[in-house]
Amino acid sequence: MAFPHRLDAPELPDFSMLKRLARDQLIYLLEQLPGKKDLFIEADLMSPLDRIANVSILKQHEVDKLYKVENKPALSANEQLCFLVRPRIKNMRYIANLVNADKLAGRVRKYKVILTPQKFYACEMVLEEEGVYGDVSCDEWAFSLLPLDVDLLSMELPEFFRDYFLEGDQRWINTVAQALHLLSTLYGPFPNCYGIGRCAKMSYDLWRKLEEEEDSETKGRRPEIGHIFLLDRDMDFVTALCSQVVYEGLVDDTFRIKCGVDFGPEVTSSDKSLKVLLNAEDKVFSEIRNEHFSNVFGFLSQKARNLQAQYDRRRGMDIKQMKNFVSQELKGLKQEHRLLSLHIGACESIMKKKTKQDFQELIKTEHALLEGFNIRESTSYIEEHIDRQVSPIESLRLMCLLSITENGLIPKDYRSLKTQYLQSYGPEHLLTFSNLRRAGLLTEQAPGDTLTAVENKVSKLVTDKAAGKITDAFSSLAKRSNFRAISKKLNLIPRVDGEYDLKVPRDMAYVFSGAYVPLSCRIIEQVLERRSWQGLDEVVRLLNCGEFAFTDMAKEDKASSESLRLILVVFLGGCTFSEISALRFLGREKGYRFIFLTTAITNSARLMEAMSEVKA
Question: Could you write out the three-class secondary structure of 358-412?
């Protein structure tokens, strides 16, 4: 199927309904404790909650004081306590200790626990073991979809990645299925479904089961979103491990975006920090968010000149024009001015940090790893990085990138890098290596198995089919990444004559300075082009996903051509801003519009921290 070329982008569904639903449900739960109450909130729920129901809304529903759930005794004098927490065992112990302390002191209070996004049986078991189950009422707040932007929904479950991809814990799969079920209930059925990965397959199957149980709801409705694509994070670790160079990605790598970003005094050029919601409503940000960083300064300075010109217009005005200017334009100009100075401050701060780190050298090494050139030089660079103790997380990331692109490290290199790392950063990191190995992020080639060489020789001697079987046998020995072979097959490293023009990008590779097309985005592009996995069998096999690539097409009689240009991409295990920028670019090129749903926003540092046993 040929893409419609550069049509006007289709309208996005209105996701504000998700916020209203979540808010109404929370208020309903709070109202079940009539009268004044104190609310204890888990720290990482504070930012998402602020997006749904801010303090003034909570106050309207008789929430008196707000406390953070932390490891110290609670000093609340209220007769009713409400806890808003994630379903974690440590939170249950915290609540049980609090209730038991009250019992000892002879205090009688009412306690309500609201677990989000799901109530797990294990949590109630803990309360029972601690002898407080009868004193506490437990409820579930099914808040699993937070609209971060017009085209971005997050489940705000950063722990999903570690729980599933390291521990093999499948408890969040139900949460994903419920979230998809809610979306299809609100925005019509999805006529075309594609997916790849074990987690994607399980989530999809469970979601389908939920749909069958409540069959009537979406029957006969017109779909608003034509395609849905589910993708596991472990299909493509490489993209998540690379340094980001688009503006939004760099802001995330530098300042950490969590439901907005905290810009410190070095950005705001005052003595205060400022929380900024980075979304499409920020007119300056929306124009630079997907740009390569090298273009951002030029754009901002041009914008500043235009702004100055608009301010200067007021010089020759008479009274009437001046009145119009003040009432209609001045407020907008001031707002734009404020945003402009913030983003210029952010750019300067990023530049300072990156110059200190010698960012160019780092990027050069990453590109060499992606292309498979100068591996020895890159290894020496990583060794130097470790010996200079630049940063434990950064060194780990580079080692993982080397391992995945090279299909595992040769035993000599693995041992040498690991020893140097432990000597440089401390032996407490030993368990982290075991985690990375289990997840397939940092592996050692089995002795005598510099496989690519063996495979190449073998495949020349036998037919493709037999060679495939042999590769499969090799791959099943360990979680193999086969990155080089996939990269060749999907043409991930663009061949460029002369300079790659970052001002006018020609393909998705611009998000990594023209050196590499994100694998996850290329897979999505190829499948959408073919409307199935046909012709991609070799890629699916190299991804070790033979039985987990699926397509499910409904009859397209009800879907409008408008809805067929809307694609919901679901990242299980996190998604980076670089991937979002790349797919936005693809959408603009092909007349599509992508909507993103992710378990959480991730980047290389978050990925490494999730695997680390040493808490920063």
Answer: CHHHHHHHHHHHHHCCCHHHHHHHHHHHHHCCCCHHHHHHHHHHHHHHCCCECHH
Looking at beta carbons, which pairs linking 477-481 to residues 24 or more positions away fall under 8 Å?
477/446, 477/449, 478/408, 478/440, 478/443, 478/446, 479/234, 479/439, 479/440, 479/443, 479/544, 480/407, 480/408, 480/440, 480/451, 480/544, 481/237, 481/238, 481/403, 481/404, 481/405, 481/407, 481/408, 481/440
Helix, coil or strand: residue 147: strand
| Confidence band, pLDDT 50/70/90 cuts, at residue 461 | low
Q: How far is CA 515 from the centre of its chain?
A: 22
- What does the angle CA 516 – CA 453 – CA 400 come to, to the nearest 5 degrees? 45
Give strand pairing partners of 432. none
Model pLDDT for residues 525-539, shown as the tens digit of each residue: 999 999 889 889 999
Peptide linkage before 411 cis (omega within 30 of 0): no
582 close to 521: Cβ distance less than 8 angstroms: yes
pLDDT of the residue at 464: 52
pTM of the model: 0.90
If we measure between CA atoms, which residue out of 495, 442, 401, 488 comes closest to residue 612?
A: 442
> Which one, of 115, 79, 72, 112, lies nearest residue 94 by Cα?
72
pLDDT for 3 equals: 37
Contacts of 371 (CB under 8 A, 6+ apart): 493, 515
Whole-angstrom distance, CA of residue 606 vs CA of residue 577: 13
Q: What is the rounded distance in angstroms from the CA atom of residue 201 to the CA atom of residue 199?
A: 5
User: Do 190 and 226 meet the contact criterion of CB atoms below 8 Å apart?
Assistant: yes
pLDDT in tens, 33-88: 899 999 999 998 999 999 998 888 999 988 888 889 887 777 788 899 999 999 99
Identify any residues that bridge with 596 across adjacent strands, giving them in sequence order: 152, 569
Q: Which of 392, 413, 464, 401 is nearest to 615 (CA)?
A: 392
- Average confidence (pLDDT) over 172-194: 92
Phi (first) and psi of residue 292, to 5 degrees: -65, 140
Question: How many C-beta neighbours within 10 Å does residue 66 have?
Answer: 15
Give the N- to C-terminal CA distance of the chain in Å, as an integer.
Answer: 49
pLDDT category at 272 given cuts 50, 70, 90 is confident
CA distance 407 to 391: 24
* Radius of gyration of the chain, Cα coordinates, nearest whole angstrom: 26
**Mean pLDDT (whole number) for 431-455:** 79
Q: Is pLDDT of 276 > 60?
A: yes
